[in-house]
Write a structure and sequence with these properties.
Length: about 325
């Protein structure tokens, strides 16, 4: 595959992606805070790592944090560290991710999932370039470049009071929006070649060409899971492939969406995001309590069983909101 079609492991030549490359190159040589937005599976962490590799901090650490994967009561300690005895179980001093990233870059993935109290601490780091460990009083200088990413609509989160507007403006110094795979269909053949080459080498297989119908099918699909979904779709048939021609079973992909169904999917997706924000706001207001007269279910006027089902469906960690 032609080397000019890749940029720091990001594959594609579409105008939409070239615009992203241009913004990445311009901001990489600065120390400005970057906010990367885009759907799930579009490669936001790849963009963050590429910016770090093109910066003057390349010889220093790149530390990634998935803010949605850390329990609410541990996120502050994870980011800023804690002193011995700061809380039950804190048997020794621990350095946080900001200290580990000293001189380098910290990548805050899913930053929209941070609890409000941690948002305040992060705002202080961005404003004053210093922080305190949990249970400590000494201010520690933060020589760290911050790159944040989210697939949430932060403006909607601000309206629902689950995200601070002042933190948003501090993070949104240099925004980069990653296009979905639907917006860069001309890159699909390149991406297919790239993933076939990767998995063929791992499986010690020789693939000489791609079935024409397979390529047409892959280009007509809407890819709601974006590049991550494409990668998984390529890996599966590679395991089963016994010839030198790569092909997939069309039953592995849903039928292409019509323009009308695309619009319905878009409306439904926006509705689900709003519903998730409402549930998270109710859980925050009730300290993570679902049942009872002061619980989130009563607050939103729905049965407890329905609320629990929606929490599981949206993969919301209600323990993050417990007082």
């Amino acid at each position: 595959m032609d080397r000019v079609s890749t940029f720091e492991e990001i594959v594609g030549t579409s105008p939409a992606l070239q615009a992203v490359f241009s913004r990445m190159i311009k901001v990489a040589v600065t120390d400005s805070t970057v906010l990367i937005t885009g759907e799930t599976g579009t490669g936001k962490e790849l963009v963050a790592r590429a910016i770090h590799r093109r910066s003057d901090r390349v010889s220093r650490p790149f530390v990634g944090v998935n803010c949605a994967a850390i329990p609410r009561d541990l996120i502050a300690s994870e980011l800023f560290g804690h002193e011995k005895g700061a809380f039950t179980g804190a048997i020794q001093q621990r350095l946080g991710r900001f200290e580990l990233a000293n001189g380098g870059t910290i990548f805050l993935d899913e930053v929209g999932e941070l609890p409000v109290e941690t948002q305040i601490a992060l705002l202080r780091v961005l404003q004053e370039h210093e922080f305190e460990r949990v249970g400590g009083t000494r201010r520690i200088r933060a020589d760290v470049r911050v790159i944040a990413a989210t697939n949430r609509d932060l403006q909607a989160a601000i309206s629902s009071r689950s995200f601070r507007s002042d933190l948003f403006y501090r993070l949104n110094v240099f925004p980069i929006e990653i296009p979905s795979l639907r917006e860069r269909r001309e890159d699909i053949p390149l991406l297919v070649e790239y993933f076939i080459d990767r998995y063929a080498q791992k499986a010690s297989k020789q693939i000489k060409r791609i079935n024409k119908k397979t390529l047409e099918l892959l280009q007509s699909y809407t890819w709601p899971g974006n590049i991550r979904e494409l990668q998984n779709v390529i890996e599966r048939p590679m395991i089963l492939c016994e010839t030198e021609i790569f092909s997939i079973d069309e039953n592995w992909l849903p039928l292409p969406l019509t323009p009308e169904s695309k619009q319905q999917v878009g409306l439904w997706r926006r509705f689900l995001l709003q519903e998730k924000d409402m549930i998270e706001t109710a859980l925050k207001d009730t300290g993570g309590r679902v049942a009872g007269p002061t619980g989130a279910a009563v607050k939103l006027g729905m049965p407890r069983s329905t609320m629990e089902s929606k929490i599981r469906s949206f993969k919301i960690n209600k323990n993050r909101y417990k007082s």
